[in-house]
């Protein structure tokens, strides 16, 4: 049996959907007309301290004077909370039983209780029912991948493909949420554990799209680091030595801690390492990885790999039509395009199994035909009236043998019984003739009576 596995990130048992707690910013509308998405940290009546996202992973602090602010728009809390449910509403994959429980108890039910008058209530109730149904199916061992459900038996059969598909989905989700380092580490896991999976060509394309975002973050971090170091030096310059020394020691301790954390990650084999605050070494390490990986990924023949995956999908159709010779040729083409394609071997095994089954069936049919006994020819019947003994005697040799040889006992030849003669017709028998005469006489008498009656009737008139 073959089954097409849709493309998408880690096996359900070890992978749960990310349920980020999004913080929806207020909108600060300045008198100039500029609109700024920000999270307000403090408001002393004169100024407002706010955090503004510079990039998906970088925030910057900013102070606004109340005089320059026209208004502050705050989002609808019910609508914001509903948007937080988007990962649950749109998730094409099943999650673990624990995460279903956490989502229902921690997100769905609180929404229904807190925002009971919201227009989103019917949608959330429908989502609750959907999650409960999915949870029941997962409890039975089923798995959903890209909105397609797999039975427990299929989960075992297609575990590597399901695992790589889910891992790829995780990679995409992390990239979309701005966690580029984690997304590329998921890609590194795909390359390590499932290098020939059908998701790999797509994963290479996504990784190539993510790397420029990391380069932009590196550039931004370098600017921030330079600014922080300059501000620190200015601050230290105006401090007395007894206050300066603890700050210098704290910075040195932070550097040691960051160095140790970075070395631990590198020793563990993690390819994509994070950037630590005020730590130039982590920036430099990530820059080396970005440079080398951008060059390596650009050299991967994604088009050939994708064509190989498409060829295996075509071979599936040919196998379903029992066109095994064409499917074999198609799989050879897939191997030529990408020798590591992990779909080729299972499909080749499926063809071999189908051919073996067909050969076994033909052999069984042939043996069954041979085992069926051929009907023996009927013995020639002795003509009616002939004497079996006379017939045997007429064929016996005229000269007696010189030595006594036992004469085999012959089974008597059965004389077929002739079919019984059909009984003569009733009208050809004596009783039949009498009956005919009697009926004829009666008819004559009736005719004579009617004629006389008619004559009398005519005379009376």
Any overview of this molecule?
This protein is α+β, with helices and mostly antiparallel strands and 461 residues long. The radius of gyration is 49 Å and the shape is elongated. It starts with 25 loop residues before the first strand and ends with a helix. It has a 5-stranded antiparallel beta sheet with strand order 4-3-2-1-5, with no helix packed on it. A two-stranded antiparallel sheet has the order 6-7. It has helices at 77-84, 86-90, 97-114, 121-139, 152-157, 159-176, 180-193, 200-237, 241-267, 280-298, 302-320, 324-337, 344-371, 388-395, 430-460, and strands at residues 26-30, 35-43, 47-55, 58-65, 69-73, 143-145, 148-150. Residues 4-23 and 384-417 have low confidence and may be disordered. Helix content is 59%, strand content 9%. Strand 1 and strand 2 form a beta hairpin. Helix 6 runs antiparallel to helix 7 and helix 12 packs antiparallel against helix 13.
Question: What does the secondary structure layout of this molecule look like, with pairings?
Answer:
Blueprint: E1 26-30, E2 35-43, E3 47-55, E4 58-65, E5 69-73, H1 77-84, H2 86-90, H3 97-114, H4 121-139, E6 143-145, E7 148-150, H5 152-157, H6 159-176, H7 180-193, H8 200-237, H9 241-267, H10 280-298, H11 302-320, H12 324-337, H13 344-371, H14 388-395, H15 430-460
Antiparallel strand pairs: 1-2, 1-5, 2-3, 3-4, 6-7
């Amino acid at each position: 049996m073959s089954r097409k596995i849709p493309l998408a990130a880690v096996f359900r048992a070890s992978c749960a959907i990310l349920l980020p707690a999004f913080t929806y910013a207020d909108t600060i509308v300045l008198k100039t007309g500029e609109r700024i998405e920000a999270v307000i940290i403090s408001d002393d009546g004169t100024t407002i301290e706010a955090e503004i996202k510079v990039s998906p992973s970088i925030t910057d602090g900013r102070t606004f004077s109340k005089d320059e602010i026209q208004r502050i728009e705050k989002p609808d809390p019910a609508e914001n909370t509903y948007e937080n449910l988007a990962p649950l509403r749109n998730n094409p994959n099943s999650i673990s039983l624990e995460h279903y429980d956490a989502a229902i108890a921690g997100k769905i039910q609180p929404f229904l209780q807190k925002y009971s008058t919201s227009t989103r209530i019917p949608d959330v109730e429908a989502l609750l029912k959907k999650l409960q149904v999915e949870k029941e199916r997962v409890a039975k061992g089923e798995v959903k991948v890209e909105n397609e459900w797999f039975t427990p038996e299929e989960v075992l059969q297609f575990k590597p493909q399901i695992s790589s598909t889910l891992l790829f989905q995780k990679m995409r989700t992390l990239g979309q949420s701005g966690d580029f380092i984690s997304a590329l580490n998921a890609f590194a896991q795909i390359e390590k554990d499932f290098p020939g999976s059908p998701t790999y060509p797509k994963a290479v394309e996504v990784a190539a799209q993510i790397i420029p975002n990391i380069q932009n973050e590196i550039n931004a971090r370098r600017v921030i680091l330079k600014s922080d170091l300059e501000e620190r030096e200015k601050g230290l310059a105006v401090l007395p030595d007894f206050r300066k020394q603890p700050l210098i020691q704290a910075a040195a301790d932070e550097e040691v801690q960051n160095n140790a954390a970075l070395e631990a990650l590198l020793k563990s084999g993690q390819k994509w390492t994070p950037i630590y605050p005020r730590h130039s070494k982590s920036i430099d390490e990530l820059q080396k990885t970005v440079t080398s990986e951008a060059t390596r990924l650009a050299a991967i023949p994604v088009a050939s790999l994708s064509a190989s995956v498409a060829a295996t999908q075509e071979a599936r159709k040919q196998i379903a039509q029992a066109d095994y010779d064409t499917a074999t040729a198609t799989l050879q083409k897939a191997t030529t395009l990408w020798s590591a394609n992990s779909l080729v071997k299972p499909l080749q095994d499926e063809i071999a199994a189908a051919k073996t089954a067909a050969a076994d069936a033909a052999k069984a049919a042939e043996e069954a035909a041979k085992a069926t006994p051929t009907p023996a020819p009927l013995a020639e019947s002795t003509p009616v009236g002939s004497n079996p003994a006379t017939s045997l005697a007429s064929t016996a040799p005229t000269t007696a043998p010189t030595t006594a040889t036992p004469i085999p006992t012959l089974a008597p030849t059965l004389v077929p019984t002739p079919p019984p003669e059909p009984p003569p017709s009733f009208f050809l028998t004596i009783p039949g003739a009498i009956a005919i005469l009697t009926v004829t006489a009666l008819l004559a008498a009736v005719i004579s009576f009617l004629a006389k009656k008619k004559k009398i009737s005519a005379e009376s008139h």
